[in-house]
């Protein structure tokens, strides 16, 4: 692996509290790494540390294999950033795009050539003489991106740059970013709350919580195979069904659900589990006729409880004789099946749609004579350490 940025055992504290605790992260040259997590997860703190704006209290930061400290000017000149609210200077669009080039004391003709080329790349040529502070939100963000990439940074930091853009401007921004990153082989570190953005732009995704990285991997793999309950919920997996693996062999498993029913999956795991099923993986059908054959392993009798339009897809809440299941289907499916509350139908999903994670919130029932949970917590306080459960 060719890492351009690497952190090892990095910690950052604010007012005595731990804001960042990353054991190891290596950012590959030329990749787009998306940092995701709830507010306060440590994403922006990690960006400031990687960008050498802040120095960690502990740990090592390396750039191209060599240790660097905060505010190392020669390294920071290889970096640039675009943030949620673009700050544009007084003057024209062309002046703003050329700003970083002038700071680097490039020849005037080179400044003009590179600024013009960057504006052409991002479709800003017609706006070159416009007042930069009178642009729309989407235009202003494109100017901020142009100013950042005009200096040809090796690493580009983006902290929720599309959060305030309308859907059309957001799509255009992502297209511009992919084109620029591909052309210049730029390494991009992209902070976002949006799963759609991460999948559209990211090669890899890192999910953060409490200052630590909970999961890191290829974007599609993280999306379809969350590491735990928290990651599954954060990534929008709405069907989390607790149960226990009763049969497992050669990459296949049967899960007996706590509230009744069985699921079949290709993911092998032992013991207590959560079966994670994305709502868009669930398909809806008229009830099977006796003797009807289907290659779909998981076929559940269900009753429609609610149908809600949530945009391009409709959310269908199902009662599967003891547990709830959500499906998201297109409008033609609603019309074809005539879906309405109280209707009986069949929910189907493949074995590969069921991903198993450890059920980290389940507790063994107390045996007779054991001390209560309250006493156990009291002992934990007395011992000086209390661990919160996710």
Task: Explain what this protein looks like in three dimensions.
Helix content is 27%, strand content 34%. Helix 3 packs across helix 4 and helix 5 packs parallel to helix 6 (167-184). Strand 11 (239-249) and strand 12 form a beta hairpin. It is α+β, with helices and mostly antiparallel strands and 390 residues long. The strands form four sheets. The chain has a six-stranded mixed sheet with strand order 6-7-8-3-9-10, with helices on both faces. It is globular. It has helices spanning 43-50, 73-76, 93-103, 108-121, 137-150, 167-184, 195-201, 219-224, 229-234, 331-337, 373-382; strands at residues 3-14, 17-28, 32-36, 58-63, 66-68, 79-83, 155-159, 187-191, 204-209, 212-218, 239-249, 252-257, 262-265, 272-277, 283-285, 298-309, 313-319, 324-330, 344-349, 354-358. The chain folds into two domains: 3-229, Rossmann fold (3-Layer(aba) Sandwich), CATH 3.40.50.300; 237-358, OB fold (Dihydrolipoamide Acetyltransferase, E2P), CATH 2.40.50.
């Amino acid at each position: 692996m060719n890492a351009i940025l690497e952190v090892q055992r990095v910690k950052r504290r604010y007012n005595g509290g731990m804001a960042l605790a990353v054991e190891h992260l290596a950012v590959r040259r030329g990749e787009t790494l998306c940092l995701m997590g709830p507010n306060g997860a440590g994403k922006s703190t990690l960006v400031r540390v990687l960008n050498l704006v802040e120095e960690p209290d502990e740990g090592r930061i390396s750039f191209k294999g060599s240790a660097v400290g905060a505010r190392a000017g020669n390294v920071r000149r290889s970096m640039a950033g675009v943030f949620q609210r673009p700050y544009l200077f007084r003057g024209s669009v062309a002046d703003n795009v050329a700003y970083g080039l002038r700071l680097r004391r490039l020849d005037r003709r080179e400044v003009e050539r590179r600024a013009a080329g960057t504006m052409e790349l991002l479709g800003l040529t017609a706006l070159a003489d416009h007042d930069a502070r009178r642009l729309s939100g989407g235009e202003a963000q494109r100017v901020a991106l142009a100013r950042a990439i005009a200096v040809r940074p090796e690493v580009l930091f983006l902290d929720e740059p599309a959060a305030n853009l309308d859907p059309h401007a957001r799509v255009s921004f992502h297209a511009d970013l992919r084109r620029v990153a591909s052309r210049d082989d730029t390494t991009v570190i992209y902070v976002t709350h949006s799963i759609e953005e991460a999948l559209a732009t990211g090669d890899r995704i890192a999910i953060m919580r409490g200052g630590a990285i909970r999961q890191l991997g290829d974007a599609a793999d993280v999306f379809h195979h969350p590491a735990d309950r928290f990651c599954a919920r954060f990534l929008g997996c709405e069907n989390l069904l607790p149960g226990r693996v009763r049969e497992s062999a050669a990459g296949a498993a049967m899960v007996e659900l706590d509230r009744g029913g069985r699921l079949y999956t290709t993911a092998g795991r032992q013991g207590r589990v959560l079966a994670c099923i994305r709502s868009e993986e669930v398909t809806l059908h008229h009830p099977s006729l006796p003797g009807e054959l289907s290659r779909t392993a998981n076929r559940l009798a269900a009753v429609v409880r609610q149908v809600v339009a949530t945009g391009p897809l409709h959310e269908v809440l199902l009662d599967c004789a003891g547990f709830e299941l959500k499906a998201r289907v297109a409008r033609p499916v609603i019309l074809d099946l005539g879906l309405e509350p109280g209707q009986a139908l069949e929910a189907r999903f493949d074995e590969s749609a069921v991903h198993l994670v450890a059920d980290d919130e389940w507790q063994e029932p107390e045996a007779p004579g054991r001390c209560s949970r309250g006493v156990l917590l009291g002992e934990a306080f007395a011992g000086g350490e209390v661990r919160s459960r996710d």
